[in-house]
Fold this protein.
Amino acid sequence: MLTDGEIAAFVRDGYLPLRGAVAGEVVAECRSVIWSQLGEHGILREDRATWRAPVVRLACPEGGPFAAAGTSPMLLAAFDDLIGPGRWWRREGVGGTIPVRFPSEADPGDAGWHIESSYPVGDRSFVNVHSRARGLLAIYLLTDVGQVSAPTRVRPGSHLDVPPLLADAGEDGMEWMKASLLAAEATAHRPT
């Protein structure tokens, strides 16, 4: 499914866009469900005056179009190519949270740099150099974005700067927030 060049780009950059991996009609259905959930919070698609917060987080629904998005044949083939067949847990959906971003000059409070946490220790999230319980993070962009519309920013190659920071913490790892702050500093030299 993925070309040798795409796999090499993933290894080099730490991410790989898969444009069109989910059918357009499935993405449209996902957006309809999201707008319905936002409506339950008084946020209406047709009334921009109700778009007060810079970001609203929703729990990702299970089933329906989200199951179709999370099990797209193109995505499943890409996961096999990147991680290896049988080396990952197949989730029947997208999962996680959906950050819905609205035009705003206000700080949304979550637009900084971070690394993905791997596992809980008590009530806190931790990460270690082995990325326990984490093999790949899939981010689904359900709308087009540009430089001024809350894009997901990445620093190509930053995944190469983080392991040395985590190595000294050993198998126990370190608290996610501390690791994120260290990673943000260590990757600042990378282009965005």
Summary: The longest helix spans residues 24-39. The chain has two domains: 1-105, 112-138+145-192. The beta strands are 55-59, 97-101, 119-121, 124-127, 174-175.
